[in-house]
Predict the 3D structure of the following.
Amino acid sequence: MVIVAIIGGVVAWALDGALSALGQPVIVPPWSWGVGLGLLGALILAIAWPIRQRLHVAPRRDLVDPFYATRVVLLAKSTSVAGSLFVGAAIGVGIFFLTRPVVTEDTLWASAGALPGAILLMVGGITAERWCTLPPGSSEGGALGQPEGDIV
């Protein structure tokens, strides 16, 4: 995740630098970007909540739908990677604006406002991915050839 965040930061910083050098308008994240990313992080948690309830809180005899669980864990993994990329991009854009000779507060606040939403997206994806794993010591995991804590 750290490497993806670094890549996102370097690409966003270089893209804004190239646009600035060419005399084009630079990319400033809109205010809705942070809010939208935060809502997506909450949405992935809401999608993974039924699996968490079934596996961790009140284990039942009926099985979790494996196709649903697979879809949720894949969505959670991609969400955490995308959130990490957006965290890096928000930091890269913020660093770009901080290194300019003339700094406007609006651009700094816009990039600072995008960072919490990107962090929420990344943390929501990581948490949802964790919710879709079998707890260690469960009766479903630990069979021969299958380590405990596997993804459902």
